[in-house]
Amino acid sequence: MSTTTPRSVGLVRAQTAVFESPLALECGTALPAYQLQFETYGTLNAAKSNAVLICHALSGHHHVAGRYSDADKYPGWWDNMVGPGKPIDTERFFVIGVNNLGGCHGSTGPSSINPDTGKPWGSAFPVVTVNDWVKAQARLADRLGIDTFAAVIGGSLGGMQALQWSIDYPERVKNALVIASAPKLSAQNIAFNDVARQAILTDPDFFGGDFYEHGAIPRRGLRLARMLGHITYLSDDGMGAKFGRMLKSGEYQYGFDVEFEIESYLRYQGDKFSDSFDANTYLLMTKALDYFDPAKPFGGDLVKAVSGTSANFLVVSFDSDWRFSPGRSREIVDALVAAGKRVQYAQIASGHGHDAFLMMDHPYHELMHAFLNRVHEEVNR
What is the pLDDT of residues 44-101, one digit of tens each? Predict the structure, then answer.
C-alpha cells in the first residue's frame, strides 16, 4: 500500500483534443471533425506504461479530481478515489478522465455547433453507443502516445466501458476494473430509462430536441428525469436512515407542496441537475445504457464475448445496489471464469445503494488500494 498521505491533486485544468478525421458510428453514420474534453493527473512514465483511463457514468464527465480554482466549492466527481496516496494514486499512475462524445461538458455533443448548418446539432446529433465511446477514447490514447493502459476503470456505465475496452482492444488493457455494473440492462432498467426520457421528450420546452434555437431549456423534464434516476441510485435503507419520514415543518400541511425532507432533497437534486446538464445528452446517455450488450455480436453468448480478452479483472458490486444488483456483476464473473480468465470479485456491504461506487466506504477503498498496488508492481517490473 502507498505510504503517501492521501491528498488532493490540487488545481487542474481541462484540455481539448480536436480530431479532424470522421468517426464511423455504430448507428451507421459518421461524426465529422469532433473534439474530446479531458483532464490528466500525474506523470506519464518514460515507457508510457502507467496510464489509467477513468470512464464516467451517465451524468459524469472529464473532471474526475481536483479543483479548477481555490474558490470551487466541490472537487471532481471521484476526488475521494483519485489523488496522491489514494487508491488511484497519481504519484504512481498517469490518470486520464474523458468527457464522452454526446456529452455537455466540452466534448462534441448536441449543444455543439454542427459545421453543416452553423447551428447547434440538437436533434440531428447521432445516437452514440459504448462501442463508439471506446473507439473515440482509443483515438485519444493514440494522440497521447499510449499503446497500453495499465488499467481501465469505471463504475456503472463507466464499468460497461471498461468491459467493452477489454473486448474491443484486448492487447491495450492490462487490467479492467468493472464496478457496480452489468453485462446488459434488465427490462426494469430499460423501463426506468424510458420513463425518464419521456419526461424530457414531453416537456413543451423540448421543441423536439432543438430547444437551443428557442432560447429554452426543458427544465421540468430534466428535473423529473433526475428525480426518478436519483431514487434508483439510493437504497431503501439508506434513504430511510437519512430522511425517514421527517417533515420540514413538523406537521402535516394537507397539501401538495414539499412536506417531507425526502421530497425537498429530490427537488433540490432535480433543480441542480437541470441547471447543469443538457437534455439531449441525457437522452443519448440513457440510450447508450439501453443498447449496451457486448454478447449480442456473439449470438448472446457472454462467454464467447469475453473469450478474447487478456486483462486481469476486478469486478465489484454492492449489496444494497438494486439498480445493478450483485447478481448482474456475478454474470460477468461467471462468464470470465468459464472463459478461463483471471478475475477477482468482491461484494461490498454498503448502505449507499448504486451510488456506493462513488462513496468513501473503507472496505471498498481498501480493496481498490490492494488491487491497484499490484497493478503498480506490474508496471514497475
Answer: 999 999 999 999 999 999 999 999 999 999 999 999 999 999 999 999 999 999 999 9
Set 62, 321, 350, 352: catalytic member: 321
**Class for domain 15-184+293-380, per CATH?**
alpha beta
CATH code of the domain made up of 189-286: 1.10.1740.110
**Pick the catalytic residue: 166, 235, 354, 361?**
354
Residue 107 phi/psi, 5° resolution? -80, 160
Where are the chain's structural domains? 15-184+293-380, 189-286
354 is catalytic: yes
Which pTM was predicted? 0.96
| Rg value, the chain, Cα | 21
Active-site entry in 59, 156, 235, 274: 156
Is residue 257 a known part of a binding site? no
Per the annotation, the verdict on 156 as an active-site residue is yes
- Asked if residue 79 belongs to a known ligand binding site, the reply is no
* Residue 249: active-site member: no
Q: Is the dihedral of CA 40, 150, 365, 307 positive or negative?
A: positive
